[in-house]
Design goal:
Chain lengths: 360, 190, 160
């Protein structure tokens, strides 16, 4: 049969962000794959060396725009690690609540794009409409729809607005009823199940060796979640389960993300109940000491890390960002080989690419 | 142009298709484009075609960064751009509008220029978000082109970081008004 | 925030995973590893000679169950380059920060992409942006910038 290279080029409706996937096909079966990133490279690491510590927070938001609260929180954690700051407890609870709301919003965004790619257009409309409920909460809390600029070094920017608890609990109740309806809709659709079950197997050993983290790793049977295993912030006080699945296919990745949304609803309820009164921010020093700081979070897409080198001035010396999607994209050749061309959409969509953070 | 083909009972007159197209282009240019017949047809149909063009704007499904999520949300039930006839298409050959919604890096610049060249006339460009207008928060980066109007002519600028979906709809409506004001006949281009 | 562990840990009973790690590394590579520090609960930092890096990483993966390479960073100081490896152990819930130094005129180190496949693209990124050469890398070429770009932007002498 004829072998040829096909370019799923930078502009493609499936890609969700710009990256190039060159696939070598033999008839209809995939033989080899070469991903290529870099079309969104903005040089954030170099930009960060010229800005003060607080000026980088909005830039960190725009690293991964699907879950921007996580990245600015990660940056603030790193700077607080470098400076040795102790954040007030109320701020920690507000941050955790905001991050879990962001996790649900990010997974809903993924589900919308995934469903519309696989042909289930009703999935797109329903999930987008429910994501607006969460976006309304974020607008009340931070003032922004997509990039928030809300965490600060030493806490959060401002306190919860009036009636926020009542609105948030109402939203979480609504979300739980809708999640049940989504499960029925997606798992009752024969086409969705046929396109997902048994497709895109990524074995446990391969996943660990290739550096894949996050829901894709937990869908291959490795139960590693940074919020439980190396916890940060007030996660030790929260009671939730780690969502894992044993089949290593696309259906497992979908199932892990749905379970994570359920667990996030639980965490939001607990953080609203346990939130103490008090200060929500301390004033951080302007200059950082000489040394290094490390921050790690469980991003909705995997393990995010930042490494910060301070040199005694009010600007960083070096900021290094670890993006989970950068490493997951490099695992694409391993997962794609042997499947048909039409499965590329399901497999690469199931890995939840947000190329903004891969290219930085 | 015409050849006698074969000498037999059913000898036909053969056209080469290339010659046929040249003949048809000549007819088209002469009769329809430059003569009063063309202007007459344009005068009668200009309003109708303009109404059709501005009420069915197809933009290219090309999402670069954060504003792309707001572009996707504009198709969602709350903002619903499809009620104005605005639908995303996947292929640049089928689109009217190129919606640039993110910072253009130096690696992306040739690809974007090629996409713009592949679109057929009439075409418009909307720069959505600060990054496309001027480079945005990354204007002084070594790898970002400060503004997409450095290499592509832009018709509508939509500010915001990220631009709200309502702002995107407002931008599309302004484009519709622009198309209405610059009515051009399809045949003669006037 | 960092406490130095100056003495070698004593026995095997009641041993914290950090101490077991330190003892394992010092038993096998005493000459190459220096400057152990405990940064946080479960986070350790150590310096390693760049010639021994590949052997140390292989030992960490095979014997001490460090299955996952988290991050490879490169920092450009005035007199040296520092390459920082963050390696995670899923079994023991540990993070080890390994720091190796190279001189300014020869920024090259052995590639560890044969040990962990996840290091492949991260090393390419360090080469692309900082100019560190990784010996024995299967395909060391630019990844984020255009292929014909001439500079390494994250170096301090690049004014963009």
């Amino acid at each position: 049969m004829a072998e040829m290279w096909i370019n799923m080029g930078p502009q493609h409706p499936m890609t969700h962000g710009l990256w190039n996937l060159r696939i070598k096909v033999d008839g209809e079966t995939i033989v080899d794959a070469q991903p290529e990133v870099g079309y969104l490279h903005r040089g954030i690491e170099k930009l960060a060396e010229g800005k003060t510590y607080t000026q980088i927070i909005p830039i960190a938001d725009r690293l991964c725009y699907g879950s921007s609260m996580t990245w600015s929180h990660l940056y603030c954690l790193t700077v607080e690690n470098l400076m040795g700051l102790e954040v007030p407890e109320r701020a920690e609870y507000i941050r955790v609540m905001a991050i879990e709301m962001q996790r649900i919003a990010s997974h809903l965004m993924w589900l919308a794009a995934y469903a519309s790619d696989l042909g289930l257009a009703a999935g797109f409309t329903y999930t987008m409409r429910d994501r607006e409920v969460l976006i309304d909460l974020f607008q009340a809390l931070t003032g922004g729809r997509l990039t928030y600029n809300y965490p600060r070094i030493g806490g959060v920017a401002h306190d919860l607005p009036a009636n926020f608890e009542r609105d948030a609990l109402r939203a979480v109740d609504y979300m739980e009823t809708r999640l049940k309806q989504y499960e029925d809709m997606f798992e009752g659709s024969k086409i969705f199940m046929m396109r997902n079950v048994g497709i895109g197997i990524l074995k446990k050993g391969d996943a660990v060796n290739l550096g894949v983290t996050g829901p894709s790793l937990r869908a291959s049977g490795v139960s590693y979640d940074l919020r439980k295993d190396m916890p940060y912030s007030v996660y030790p006080e929260m009671d939730f389960a780690v969502a894992t699945h044993e089949d290593c296919d696309c259906y497992a990745r979908y199932r892990v993300r749905m379970d994570e949304m359920w667990e996030s609803c639980k965490i939001i309820r607990q953080s609203l109940k346990k939130m103490p009164k008090g200060k929500w921010r301390i004033v951080a020093p302007r200059t950082a000491p000489v040394g290094t700081g490390l921050g790690r979070v469980e991003d909705p897409r995997g393990e995010g890390m930042m490494y910060l080198v301070g040199d005694g001035t009010d600007r960083p010396y070096r900021l290094k960002i670890r993006s989970p999607i950068f490493v997951t994209v490099s695992a694409a050749p391993k997962i794609l080989v042997g499947y048909k061309l039409a499965d590329v959409v399901a497999i690469m969509g199931g890995l939840d690419m947000c190329i903004g953070e891969a290219d930085r | 142009m015409k050849e006698q083909g074969g000498s037999g009972p059913g000898s036909a007159i053969l056209f080469k298709s290339r010659d046929f197209l040249k003949w048809w282009d000549g007819v088209f240019e002469g009769v329809l484009r430059r003569s009063p017949v063309g202007s007459g047809i344009d005068y009668l149909t200009k309003d109708f075609f303009n109404w059709a063009t501005r009420n069915s704007i197809y933009f290219l499904h090309f999402g670069i960064m954060c504003c792309a999520l707001e572009m996707a949300v504009a198709s969602a039930p709350r903002f619903d751009q499809q009620r104005f006839g605005i639908i995303p298409r996947s292929s640049p050959r089928q689109c009217d509008v190129l919606l640039v919604n993110g910072p253009v890096s130096k690696k992306l610049k040739p690809a974007l220029r090629r996409l713009y060249d592949q679109m057929p006339e009439p075409k418009w460009v909307i720069a959505m978000g600060e990054c496309a207008i001027s480079g945005g928060p990354f204007y002084n980066s070594y790898s970002v082109v400060p503004g997409v109007d450095q290499f592509i002519p832009v018709d509508v600028y939509i500010p915001g970081c990220p631009a709200r979906p309502e702002a995107l709809l407002d931008g599309f409506l302004k484009l519709q008004k622009m198309i209405k004001e610059n009515k051009k006949g399809l045949l003669t281009g006037k | 925030m960092a406490e130095k562990l100056l003495e070698k840990p004593a026995g095997r009973i009641d041993e914290v995973p950090e101490q077991r790690l330190m003892r394992g590394l010092l038993d096998h590579f005493a000459s190459a590893m220096t400057d152990f520090q405990r940064l946080d609960r479960g986070v350790m930092r150590a310096k390693v000679e760049r010639r021994e890096l590949h052997k140390v990483c292989k030992f960490l993966k095979d014997n001490m169950s460090f299955e996952h390479i988290s991050m490879i960073s490169a920092v450009d100081y005035e007199d040296r380059f520092e390459i920082v490896y963050h390696i995670t152990s899923y079994r023991d819930k540990l993070l080890l920060e390994l720091v190796t130094t190279t001189p300014k005129d020869d920024p090259s180190v052995d590639s560890i992409s044969s040990i962990w496949g996840g290091a492949d693209w991260q090393e390419r990124e360090s080469y692309d942006l900082m100019g560190i050469r990784f010996n024995n890398h299967p395909k060391l070429e630019r990844i984020l910038l255009p292929k014909d770009y001439l500079y390494h932007p994250l170096r301090k002498d690049f004014k963009g």
